[in-house]
Specification:
The complex is a heterodimer of chains A (about 650) and B (about 325). The radius of gyration of chain A is 38 Å and the shape is elongated. In chain A, helix 5 runs antiparallel to helix 6 and helix 13 (about 405-410) packs across helix 14 (about 415-430). In chain A, the strands form four sheets. In chain A, strands 1, 3, 4, 7, 14, 17 and 18 form a seven-stranded antiparallel β-sheet that branches. In chain A, strand 9 (about 305-310) and strand 10 form a beta hairpin. With about 650 residues, chain A is of the alpha+beta class. Chain B is α+β, with helices and mostly antiparallel strands and about 325 residues long. Helices cover about 35% and strands about 30% of the residues of chain B. Chain B is built from eight helices and 16 strands. Chain B has helices spanning about 1-15, 15-20, 45-60, 65-90, 200-210, 230-235, 265-285, 305-315; strands at about 30, 40, 95-100, 105-115, 120-125, 130-135, 140-150, 155, 160-165, 170-180, 185, 215-220, 240-245, 255-260, 285-290, 295-300. In chain B, the strands form five sheets. In chain B, strands 2-10-9-5-6 form a five-stranded antiparallel β-sheet. In chain B, strands 1-3-4-7 form a four-stranded antiparallel β-sheet, with no helix packed on it. In chain B, helix 7 links the parallel strand 14 (about 255-260) and strand 15. Residues about 200-210 of chain B have low confidence and may be disordered. The chains are: A alpha+beta (about 650), B alpha+beta (about 325). Chains A and B meet through helix 5, helix 6, helix 7 and helix 20 of A and helix 3, helix 4, strand 5 and strand 6 of B.
Chain lengths: ~650, ~325
């Protein structure tokens, strides 16, 4: 029995400090890109570990011993479980991955370790995009590839020394040359119409509009200036004071908060009747809200596909909007909504909790007495009260007590849209006019360059609708009575200087203009889904591009790109020979006079023949020839000044016509 | 991972006809071109492509287009690195090989000169178990030093050399074989111990006779110089004493090393003994001549003469 001889295991030399620095930089970048969603203490601990390891490696090369590494590993797992409850899923998984990546650095000493670490870092870079796939995040992640590629290069032995910054450039060049192929593959890789495993977990929750409204819960929303949706109109956009996008219509008031009357409680009802005069067609691209409601301009005529029109002409999608959704709709601009109010609706529109806001009810009763049956006069009286009663628009109002409307109307006199809408509606109901609260968006920024209306979360708004006999539901915006700019100019103008420094005018203008890039990115790259891919070849007459066609196209174009790449790789670039070029020039000049150099003719023979053919220039040609022969054969490398003289002599050479 | 790859490489070399074409030695200079450059993904390359696949499936599953774009970019960059790997060997030229001196059993030093029109990095040269990594600047020559183990005296042909690289990212391994038609001369190994060469006696006597006899120069008197060396006549013409300085006698004996004197020994033993004598003569810095069958080397001294004699010995049949 023979035991196999132990294979000679090549001892891998430790990686040099340049490669290790680049690797540490890559991992620091990965950590930085993930820091936004990791708990701060974990980011700090990992950053400290990384920095400590880097410092330790600078002092002396060597792995971190196992007695230190294994407890750290256990600690990391424990920390992730404590923070997230488990280790699976997007957040805990990526936290664990980033932690393992940093721990991998602790034992990285050989080329093999470093390569594994770099590959894993590439994976870590990709997972950062699962949290934010905006343009800036993507560019940052793509830049993170540079140190990764540079550290892979630095692992190769025997290369000319370069600086750290210059070491990053070849990676950039490589990525840039790979970009066309990458874009092509991006276009043609068949998308999955349904995920292979698990449902993709929802993105980071934006507050968005909610189906209830109580004083103060809009504050988060009004300071969040991420885009909520982008609207493009067929034809001219409606004027600013008509840009009301309805989301929820709220009937239920419990003394403190307004609630959306879900179909579960109200039972199925037919959409309210609508007589429209003029209408407008538009497309909305809605950011994910994880809710079913689809905001629509004013009063929509019908629901887009996969959505339904509710009783008060609000639009609910069949399932929550978890990805960016594009839909088109048509809305009425001048209309009469529900000109006949049924008894049930009237009852709902007048209902108030009994023992709340006594002073408000008293005021309303007083108005009713004064104006009699004139509902419009009561509405006007309320608006006049808001306009002249010393009310102030602020995003940071004083807190309100149990009788919130009383407190607001008679004591604090400050608040924002939801305070006004709520108080106005309560006043109307108390005065016997059916009224309800509508929430949604109002205003937005008109991007001239992109021809679309950008609506941010901060454009969220609440207003009232009152039912007037003969006119149906009429929109009344009490906030406009206090602060007309809110309606005509938008939320930012209304808030004045109450917003943080980064939302001041010029910066805001810049951000509004920049939004077109975001829109392009969102629509062109992020929104390029299976459906859009199927329509990819429509301009070429193929209506529905299936997976097989895409595969064939991908194969063909990859082969094409590989051919281009091979042509580049195989192209032999001959070193330039200025001396030969100069001689060629001389030959061209002589050839015009019929003295053509033979294929097998040497320069001496040829120029000698030329001298015989042009006896008038024999001396000049002889001089040129000797000069050429000397430059060619007397030196390894022709001296530059003699070469220049020869070139000039050739340039000055003119064939003189022989006079016979 | 490494074993199957090497098996694949061996299989490829056996099967691919183009490779067998370069099984025969060829004369220098050797320029590498596409017909003799081979490329396969390295173990790391295979692992990395699996990772890319995982990233692709992940990006597709989560319908995350930014991640998909990143994966495509990384994949395309990896593919492009294959072309860069090819170009790092394509057009490389082995212009000449210079060998050092070594006696049989020792490693001989080789200096291979590679030149190239553009800059190249991280090229590795394998010879036996020895690997050297080097870089070349644009239109420059790189001298690569290697050692080659030797066995016996005489001409030893160079083995096949493998030139390979995993530049730039380590994802692909590109290699080519060089089989230069060149041999190195290995000197004979001297015997460990043995008799000294027979030096003619009259030579020594002749030297003693002439010892210190030739007046070479006059110099200033130094304390301790013998009185009889003082040049009285010359000193009279100067204001201080002058001393006659005699040339040191020639300490280098004339050795005549002769193949025919060692007729009692067999061939290799004769060579080993002559080699030892040559070493001793060289160490004592005497001048020597060497007679070999068909090759007579006149008396001389110095390292060139020594190399000449050793070369002659090494080339004996």
């Amino acid at each position: 029995m023979t035991t196999p001889a132990p294979r000679r295991k090549a001892v891998e030399p430790p990686i040099d400090s340049r490669a290790f620095d680049l690797l540490s930089l890559t991992m620091a970048l990965v950590l930085g890109l993930h820091a936004s969603h990791l708990p701060w203490w974990l980011s700090m601990a990992l950053a400290l570990t990384l920095g400590g390891r880097w410092w330790q490696r600078r002092q002396r090369a060597g792995r971190v011993p196992n007695w230190l590494k294994l407890p750290l590993l256990a600690l990391l797992t424990l920390a992730v479980i404590v923070q997230y409850g488990n280790i699976f899923g997007r957040e805990p998984g990526s936290a664990l991955a980033v932690g393992l990546l940093v721990l991998k650095l602790l034992e990285t000493e050989t080329v093999r370790d470093a390569r594994v670490g770099t590959s894993f870092a590439c994976f870590g870079l990709m997972t950062a995009l699962l949290f934010d796939q905006g343009l800036i995040a993507t560019v940052a992640v793509a830049l993170g590839l540079l140190p990764a590629l540079a550290s892979l290069r630095a692992l190769e032995p025997g290369q000319a020394p370069t600086s750290l910054a210059r070491g990053l450039l070849p990676g950039l060049a490589l990525s840039a040359s790979a970009l066309p192929l990458a874009l092509l593959a991006f276009l043609l890789v068949p998308r999955l119409s349904s995920p292979l495993w698990g449902a993709p977990s929802p993105g980071p929750a934006r507050t968005g509009l909610s189906d209830s409204m109580s004083p103060g819960n809009f504050t988060d929303l009004l300071t969040d200036d991420h885009p909520a949706m982008r609207v493009s109109f067929d034809g001219a956009p409606p004027p600013p004071d008509r840009r009301y996008f309805r989301a929820y219509v709220m009937w239920n008031f419990d003394g403190r908060s307004w609630r959306y009357l879900d179909v579960r409680y109200a039972g199925p009802r037919e959409p309210a009747t609508l007589e429209a005069d003029s209408s407008i067609q538009y497309q909305i691209s809605l950011q994910p809200t994880h809710q079913r409601v689809l905001p629509a301009l004013d009063v929509p005529l019908q629901a887009p596909p996969q959505a339904s029109l509710q009783a008060d002409r609000e639009v609910l999608a069949d399932k929550p909007v978890n990805d960016e959704l594009n839909y088109s709709a048509r809305s009425a601009l001048r209309y009469r909504l529900q000109s006949n109010l049924d008894e049930r609706s009237r009852r709902l529109g007048l209902r108030l909790p009994a023992d709340f806001n006594p002073r408000t009810q008293a005021l309303a009763a007083q108005w009713r007495q004064r104006f009699g049956g004139n509902d419009a006069a009561i509405v006007q009286a309320a608006l006049t009260l808001f306009h002249d009663g010393g009310f102030r628009y602020t995003l940071a109002p004083a807190p309100l007590g149990r009788d919130s409307v009383d407190d607001f109307l008679f004591d604090t006199h400050e608040g924002f849209c939801e305070h006004y809408a709520s108080a106005f509606t309560v006043l109307m109901r108390a005065a016997g006019i059916p009224a309800r609260v509508v929430t949604g968006y109002q205003g937005g920024y008109w991007n001239k360059l992109g021809n679309y209306l950008l609506v941010r979360y901060s454009d969220a708004h609440a207003w009232s609708e009152v039912w007037l006999a003969g006119r149906g539901w009429v929109r009344i915006d009490p906030t406009g009575a206090v602060r007309p700019e809110r309606v005509s100019l938008g939320a930012a103008a209304a808030a004045g200087d109450q917003l943080s420094w980064y939302r001041n005018d010029w910066l805001q203008g810049l951000r509004n203009h920049w939004d077109i890039v975001n829109r392009w990115w969102d629509q062109g790259v992020i929104g390029f889904d299976a459906l859009r891919q199927r329509g990819l070849l429509t301009p070429f007459g193929i209506r529905d591009t299936d997976t097989a066609t895409l595969g064939v196209l991908l194969a063909i174009s990859s082969v094409l790109f590989i051919a281009i790449g091979l042509a580049w790789a195989l192209l032999r670039r001959r070193p330039r020979d200025p001396l030969r070029d100069a001689l060629r020039e001389l030959e061209r000049r002589l050839a015009r006079k019929g003295i053509v150099r033979g294929l097998t003719e040497g320069p001496q023979h040829y120029l000698g023949r030329a001298a015989r053919a042009l006896p008038g220039q024999r001396d000049e040609l002889a001089r040129l020839m000797s000069c050429y022969l000397e430059l060619r054969y007397a030196h390894d490398e022709p001296p530059p000044e003699s070469l220049r003289m020869f070139q000039r002599a050739v340039q000055d050479f003119r064939v003189v016509n022989v006079v016979k | 991972m490494r074993d199957p790859l090497q098996r694949l490489q061996r299989w490829a070399e056996k099967r691919l006809p183009a490779l067998t074409r370069y099984r025969r030695p060829e004369s220098l200079p050797i320029e590498l071109h596409r017909r003799r450059i081979y490329i396969v993904p390295s173990g790391f390359g295979i692992g990395f492509s699996i990772l890319l696949l995982v990233m692709l499936v992940g990006a597709l599953n989560y319908a995350n287009n930014a991640a998909l774009l990143l994966t495509c970019l990384l994949g395309a960059a990896s593919a492009a690195s294959m072309l860069v790997a090819f170009r790092s060997l394509d057009g490389l030229r082995l212009s000449h090989i210079r060998a050092g001196h070594a006696i049989a059993g020792q490693a001989i030093e080789l200096a291979l000169a590679f030149d190239s029109s553009r800059q190249r990095n991280a090229i590795r040269l394998d010879l036996g178990g020895d690997t050297v990594a080097f870089a070349i600047d644009a239109s420059a020559t790189a001298q690569v030093k290697l050692t080659l183990p030797t066995v016996q005296r005489g001409w030893q042909p160079l083995p096949r050399l493998r030139l390979w690289s995993t530049w730039p990212l380590g994802l692909f391994r590109v290699w080519s074989w060089l089989y230069p038609d060149q041999s190195v001369l290995v000197w004979p190994r001297p015997e460990v111990a043995g008799p000294s060469p027979h030096a003619p006696a009259d030579d020594a006597r002749h030297m003693r006779l002439h010892r210190g006899d030739e007046l070479a120069a006059l110099r200033d008197y130094r304390v301790g110089d013998p009185q009889r060396h003082i040049a009285w006549k010359a000193s009279a013409r100067h204001d201080h004493l002058l001393v006659k300085d005699f040339e040191q006698p020639q300490s280098r004996p004339q050795w005549q090393l002769d193949w025919r004197q060692l007729s009692a020994l067999e061939n290799e033993a004769r060579i080993a003994r002559l080699a030892r004598w040559l070493n001793e003569a060289q160490a004592q810095r005497c001048s020597y001549s060497l007679w070999l069958p068909g090759n007579e080397i006149a008396s001389n001294s110095g390292p060139l003469h020594y190399a000449h004699c050793m070369n002659a010995l090494a080339q004996l049949p």
